[in-house]
Design brief:
The chain is an alpha/beta fold. The chain has helices spanning 13-17, 22-34, 50-56, 61-68, 73-88, 120-123, 134-144, 153-163, 207-221, 235-243, 257-266, 281-288, 301-305, 317-329, 331-344, 350-365, and strands at 7-10, 39-41, 92-95, 111-116, 147-150, 170-172, 194-198, 224-228, 250-253, 270-272, 293-296, 310-312. The chain starts with 6 loop residues before the first strand and ends in a 6-residue tail after the last helix.
Amino acid sequence: MEGKKLKIMYDYQMLVLQRFGGISRYIFDLATAFSANNEVITPVLFPKSFYFETYFGKKSSTFALWRWNKPWVYPLNKIYNIYKLVTQKPDILHITYYNSYLLPFIPSQTKLVVTAHDMIHEIYPELFPKWDSTSNHKRKVFNRADLIIAISENTKSDLIKYFGINSDKITVIYHGNPFEKSLPKVAFQVDAPYFLFVGQRDRYKNFSTLIQALAPILKENSQKLLCIGGKPFSETEIADFKSKNIESLIERRNCTDAELQTAYKNAICLIYPSEYEGFGIPILEAWSMNCPLILSKASCFPEIAKEGALYFQPNDYLELRDKIQQLINDPSLRESLIEKGENLLKEYTLEKTLETTLNAYHKTLTPSQNA
């Protein structure tokens, strides 16, 4: 069965929602790899994803920005996806996010696959407006799905806890290292030794605990905190930095992939204080660039990073400060973490992710032996 050529469809959702990001990159990697030996259908009239603009050959960022604000982008993509699903009748429909708009139109022979990335909407409902219907859509999609891919055992447990999903239709498939191919080193200068933080900073990301822990260290050692990505600093954040006299020691930038690799490579360490993640892609990114890790002992982190990181209790800024000092003062600890990360990274290859995903597709199409 594994040798059978499949017809696989990925719908438009995340490719229009997310210009840069882990999910759109994940879908791009699947579609690109599987298109070599299978028929891959990606019916997106107006992709916002940087990756899929490259995939479709539409590289004009000006056009991307112009079309994004047009009210007809969503309905046209929906109609086109429904048309493609009904007429093409794929073996596998792998929806890229949780909207349930395609459920009434799935042909009888098509198997529905969805990847569960995290349970943010269920664990932190206060982060979303009351009218947000994502959880309702998730429930419909998860109940209808023939296969749910969970990106960690922690996410699988959350699926069972919050949605009562039968564990038999959940397959855990870890992400692969997005930095398997090292990009050319680019000019990326920071005017002091720096700690690295990557991503959004709001609420459960626990950024305030990091600031509490780091403030005296930055001042004492003339070091910096470099934040990559996320929104510009808010007035509240800037006021907090000023109150601690560290405003000049914290910097935020946006980066290309090549710049991000260099940022990891030159950092003292990556500090990832989040209270909850579905997987934690920056763990793999850091390991691939020989960047030591300090992680909160929460959600999936111990499962993914194992012994390849230092851990602290999520809201204990004093323990975090102690771990940072340990890493600064003990070069052998730093080298040990880099070596452990390098070895653990071998478990998270893109090839393994792709192979396991394709096998899961085939298994879903194979009638049960006990049927």
